[in-house]
Amino acid sequence: MGIGMLNLLKKLRGGALVGIGYMLSPLSWWNDLFFNLPIALVFGYAIGWINSTWFLPGTIIGYWLSNVLGILMMQFGAMDMFLTDEKRNIKRDVLIGLGGSTLYTLVISLLVYFHILQVPDFLSNLHF
Hints:
mainly alpha
């Protein structure tokens, strides 16, 4: 393959990562119901098998992980699309992704805890 074709494939891969990452990231808060919440619930359910009292913490951790994954996918996709290999700083980008996702998840968890955000009816029947 030629260099032009490799660059095109790299940009297409970057675009796909940005698109999927956006759906998982906190930037698409409206899409939490379709992506992040189901992922978080499956994670919480799996953790809850170990100990039933771990369902809620497992769900919060699953939600956080899905947001982290989304931000990191967007960052790596954008790097593929716009940066050359020499300008990349993977450590910095991972730390920014972790920090942003952690802050977002903490804020959402507190808003739910203090009943500022309402939990959907199908979740309010679960015993945490």
